[in-house]
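Q: Predict the bound structure with S-adenosyl-L-homocysteine.
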Amino acid sequence: MGTKIVLKSGKEQSIRRYHPWVFSGAIKKIYGEPLEGDIVTVFDNNNEFLAVGHYQPGSIAVRILSFEDIEPDSEFFRERINSAIDFRRSMGLIDNDSVNVFRLVHGEGDNLPGLIVDFYNGVIVMQSHSVGMYKIRKEIARILSELLGERIIAVYDKSESTIPFKAEIAAKNEFLSGESEPVVVTENGFKFRIDWTTGQKTGFFIDQRENRKMLSDYTKGKSVLNMFGYTGGFSVYAMKDAGLVHSVDSSASATALADENVRLNFGDDSRHTSFQVDAFEFLNDIKDKYDLIILDPPAFAKHNNVLTNALQGYKRLNMKAIEQIRPGGIIFTFSCSQVVTRENFRKSVFAAAANTGRNVRILHQMSQPPDHPVNIYHPESEYLKGLVLYVE
Ligand code: SAH
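A: Predicted complex:
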């Protein structure tokens, strides 16, 4: 059953409420010397069984796989992955011609902490955030291939930069089965070229799918500014009927990708222009130029100790947009920082609005789509928050 870990008195409470992480500070004693990625069994201070999970030296010491006293063997993972697939099937995401890019396994949200699996039109890109998951990557790839059959062309593992720093494992990104060149995926009828080897995350911000769709209700005839545009996801949706679309990103490879994706859908269309420049610099001078602005910055805070700075960052960014957007303008504003709560984000936007003195209404509150489900016992899995604002 692996190494035994006993928690300090009182520290079992969050585990009894099914929170899937054991923090190192909660541990009273570790019996034996588990290696990173080993299966461990967690007990309370009275020696009562609590959970089994993957061990990891570091702040999150155990990622819990089960609250039942079972052996997480191949059959266990097969069942969990199968249930994740079934769930996507019930949402109509499997074998869907107009959406063939989606998240197949969303870590804690699918009761598989530490594992991310994305589906790109037949190519699976896996990412382990724990050594435990990394160690069984080949088994997971095999299970995915068995369960999805001919829908899968290749499985690529991209864990080099995501498995924890302490891991004494020379992880390298590689195909675990099959091989594939970059693919073109379809999302709500729009096409995107995905290169998982060079792209951020697993290649695409799949989590914005429904928010991009909502954007397309607001773009007709508008002058649209897509800040932090990356692959041009929002820009492509806007190009459907906008008068003008500007994509801004500080990275040259990102603006090249946005250009390429716009071309893939609309050919050479003079309505679209990309700017490779720092967002805050660009926003210094946009007075009355745009009717619709999208603000989708990278996570400003990765850790709680920089939370205040992050909130200031959101405030500054939103203030620049609210101040300068044309009257009657719309702002799609997001935060993907896990440590920034929905309430805190809204407060930052509130503070930004108050500073400008303009009338601002909230039209929609956005979140992540259902293929990025939030585990109700793990509030941290709700990371994407957004607001659609109407600025008078
Ligand atoms: N909206 C995108 C995802 C944005 S990811 C989508 O839907 O796919 C964040 C992007 O912000 C990255 O491409 C990164 O290159 C860019 N970025 C980070 N810091 C920036 C800055 N200071 N100015 C402009 N772009 C920045």
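A: The chain has a mean pLDDT of 96.
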